Amino acid sequence: MFSFIKKGLDKTLGAIKEILPEKVEKIDKTLLEEILIESDIPYELVEEIIYYLPPSQFVVRDDVKRVLKAYFKYDTTSAQTEQNPFVELVIGVNGAGKTTTIAKLAHNYKKENQSVLLGAADTFRAAAIEQLKSWAEKIDVGIIYTQQGHDPSAVAYDTISSAIAKKIDHVIIDTAGRLHNQVNLANELKKIVRICDKALSGAPHRKILILDGTQGTSAINQAKAFHEMISIDAIIITKLDGTAKGGSLFGIAKALELPIIYVGVGEGKDDLIPFNSDDYIDTILDSIFTQTHG
Ligand SMILES: Nc1nc2c(ncn2[C@@H]2O[C@H](COP(=O)(O)OP(=O)(O)OP(=O)(O)O)[C@@H](O)[C@H]2O)c(=O)[nH]1
């Protein structure tokens, strides 16, 4: 797992190495500040991190770790997936990596010998339905879909009902990332949430927001808008492998006060790894300090 997060942070670690070619035992806070800014931690946060460090000009690994770790206090290590079916609603703007992430998530569950049914409730674009169908085939899981333009809530309802009838463990429902306008989108998402609850009281059990990690801090505003619409439960950051902005996770965790549950580190079905803030922070600190973790 450790090497997996390293794969996702490869470009970020490369950028750190440009600033700091040799690892150090103690780091000058001015240099640390530069590294944190370069990895796309929002500036106010960098200032805050520096403020919470000991007053001396040079700081050691443990000092930095303690301060960085505090930003991930919302993380949960285990998912509350005891409900059957466990219903997840996946939300995010087009291109964030929603479809791919749904496939990866489904593949993960399958690897744990759990059954999965997908619901193609992004009925706004025909391509979205086709793309999810093609992934469902590739990873060999069932999918409920309808024609473009049909009611997405009906798809959500049918998917959950079908999963209950077939005793399926996991339902993952795709949603539209964009409609004609923002109000329509909000209304549609709220309706889907209501209808899920009608199909199975308490569903959806987890509303997951997909954020593109290459967008850095600008993803935060997007996330806030979705959070206001339907109150998100957890975040997945995609394309961490494609960016040198690996530090943006601090900004996202702090601004949204939500757990980051997985990160996407590639385009394949196995490229979704559970997010562990200790591994993430240690991997970054390993590229700065000679002292190893543990
Ligand atoms: N490198 C990398 N690429 C990713 C990752 N996740 C998704 N992608 C790519 O990002 C692109 C968009 O992903 P989609 O899953 O189609 O995104 P979407 O949000 O469903 O977007 P629409 O299909 O436009 O609604 C695709 O080319 C994916 O292969 C990731 O973790 N790493």
TrEMBL record:
Residues 84-267 form the AAA+ ATPase domain. Keywords: Cell membrane, Cytoplasm, GTP-binding, Hydrolase, Membrane, Nucleotide-binding, Receptor. GTP binds at residues 92-99, 174-178, 238-241. InterPro entries: AAA+_ATPase, P-loop_NTPase, SR_rcpt_FtsY, SRP54_GTPase_dom, SRP54_N_sf. It comes from the Bacteria. It is an enzyme of class 3 (hydrolase). Its EC number is 3.6.5.4. The keyword Transport does not apply. Residues 85-286 form the SRP54-type proteins GTP-binding domain. It catalyses: GTP + H2O = GDP + phosphate + H(+). GO terms for cellular component: cytoplasm; plasma membrane. Belongs to the GTP-binding SRP family. FtsY subfamily. Part of the signal recognition particle protein translocation system, which is composed of SRP and FtsY. NCBIfam families: ftsY. This is Signal recognition particle receptor FtsY. It comes from Sulfurospirillum halorespirans DSM 13726. The gene is ftsY.
